[in-house]
């Protein structure tokens, strides 16, 4: 959008309101002749909501537009509402699809909320936080075995474009929301509108929509909306946790788009860019969002977040900062995806603080370590195999390769969410079956079938049943 130069002869607006003096993309400067609005205040310009981001000086504040600025012009009157942005909270939002303001996107009337809460809030005090060393079982073998999800913690699904982040997140929603006894909340940040519609329909078909809230700030919306919709979602989640004492499962797709929106706004606000062009406030903005996801004495918020990794560069500042907030990281590998090993979870790069004997048990811990060790040895042998062939390996190394290739295939599984397209029924695999299968492969007690028989199955009992 073409910038509009500042108007140095702004009209005298009086104390009750102001007038636009400059428009730069999604950033609007407003002059107030009297008292200026507070930071984070909601102001209205010709029906366009805006949030005050900074004070420029001489009665001028810089605002983030939360809608299209096409109808605005220099001199457009601006009204200070005297309040922050609030969203409806409570049981009325369950089963609804809403935008960042809590306005309906599902064609139904606005929810009659129990209360409205401001979207900006401080994280729980350290004295109010509690640690809950328990695991959220997902039914996905690779995750439950190697990167178990902490109940009340934060898990990231990392990957570049096209490696299966959204599909994996959709499967996690399918497998966990139905069995989650609290409230589930999905927040779509900067993703495609088509995915929102598909997820809305799927949740209805699964019969879990009445226990779920869905908020969206899609990729076609203003960067201010994409930047703030995550805070709207957490405000609703905090109400269920703190006021109703319920556990909340928050699913975010995609947290990188929150960072990206902040980068867009930072440039328009005139801030000096930091590394790789990111905003200098990247760490602070991310912490303000992530630190609100916590467990307290009243309830827990468990979060699973898809994280886009630009150009598969895991040293990217956005990915690096997000890593530091997580209790579990599930890294998706483009190499494994190209080999058809779905879900394309990298067993050597994924990690979880829950994978300790005290939490998952000694047997689970030992099997996970043995699986990782076997796959790491196989990774070291790949170059030799590529150059000389597997026949040149020692008998011990050939046995390692045989175990590793079966483990790789056993850790794949068909998903419910793509069952119609793939032509195979999804599998929900208990952790016990995953451990039994990996243990049998490591001990070579189930080597009676070719490698391909272990591909896209649930537990090893399917081999005996002849369904593989």
From TrEMBL:
It is found in: Cell membrane; Membrane. It is a peripheral membrane protein. Residues 151-336 form the AAA+ ATPase domain. One of its GO terms (cellular component) is plasma membrane. It catalyses: ATP + H2O + 4 H(+)(in) = ADP + phosphate + 5 H(+)(out). Gene3D superfamilies: 2.40.10.170, Bovine Mitochondrial F1-atpase, Atp Synthase Beta Chain, Chain D, domain 3, P-loop containing nucleotide triphosphate hydrolases. Its EC number is 7.1.2.2. ATP binds at residues 159-166. Keywords: ATP synthesis, ATP-binding, Cell membrane, CF(1), Hydrogen ion transport, Ion transport, Membrane, Nucleotide-binding, Translocase, Transport. GO terms for molecular function: ATP binding; proton-transporting ATP synthase activity, rotational mechanism. It holds the Pfam family ATP-synt_ab_N. PROSITE patterns: ATPASE_ALPHA_BETA. Transmembrane segments: none annotated. Produces ATP from ADP in the presence of a proton gradient across the membrane. The catalytic sites are hosted primarily by the beta subunits. Belongs to the ATPase alpha/beta chains family. This is ATP synthase subunit beta. It comes from Lutimaribacter pacificus. The gene is atpD.
